[in-house]
Amino acid sequence: MEISRESLLDDFSAMLTEAEDLLRRAGNETGERAKDLRAQVEAKLLGAKLRLQELEGEAMDRAKAAARYTDDYVHDNPWVSIGAAAAAGFVLGLLVNRR
């Protein structure tokens, strides 16, 4: 997960740098050349948006799988789950009471 996050940050950083460069050049151009540069920026931003939507879908799938796994585990091991929740509540109570 850490590698993909770093890769994602690098990809978006490069995309934003390229888009900024294209916008800067479009500001100096007029006519067809400016329209072409703006279209390239729009294409880059659309690509980034689609990639983010893809990543969002993957994250949702992973979250749903984790929720299903947790639900199955709790149903298969109710007393262990109750004990873990009680222990967590006890520790949290001690921490809150210390303040």
Quick summary:
With 99 residues, the protein is mainly α.
Architecture blueprint of SSEs:
Layout: H1 2-28, H2 31-76, H3 78-98
Give an overview in words.
- The radius of gyration is 24 Å and the shape is elongated.
- The mean pLDDT is 83.
- It is mainly alpha-helical.
- 95% of the residues lie in helices and 0% in strands.
- The chain has helices spanning 2-28, 31-76, 78-98.
- The protein contains 3 helices and no strands.
Question: What key attributes describe this structure?
Answer:
single chain, 99 residues, mainly alpha, 3 helices, 95% helix, 0% strand
| Sequence stretches where pLDDT stays below 50 over 5 or more residues | none
Average residue pLDDT: 83
* First-to-last CA distance: 36 Å
The tally of structural domains comes to 1
Largest pleated sheet: none
Tertiary shape: elongated
Instruction: Please write the string of helix (H) and strand (E) elements.
Output: HHH
Q: How many runs of DSSP E, i.e. beta strands?
A: 0
- Write down the Rg: 24 Å
The secondary-structure class comes to: mainly alpha
